Amino acid sequence: xxxxxxxxxxxxxxxxxxxxxxxxxxxxxxxxxxxxxxxxxxxxxxxxxxxxxxxxxxxxxxxxxxxxxxxxxxxxxxxxxxxxxxxxxxxxxxxxxxxxxxxxxxxxxxxxxxxxxxx
Length: 119
Prior knowledge:
The protein is an all-beta fold and about 120 residues long.
């Protein structure tokens, strides 16, 4: 089962580690704090000699409201060759800060683009 979290219209997909080829993923240095979910752990991806640093995150000890996503990983779409929701290629949420995947099933505007930081 996959969980997702909506951030002003764009879905962030949290994937259980059992559904990820973890031999390609490793914990990265650093962390950040979300006021709702708690401390985030970063993850890097290395496939066939190609590396992408800090392109995923998880909450190893989330707040009680977000316990269902404990240790699940989410990934930014922008650094990947392609990310799909079903058969549709997802676009990254604008701005590079939020990790939402934009598809035709969600309608903007999306936080992250120019002029949206104050919402």
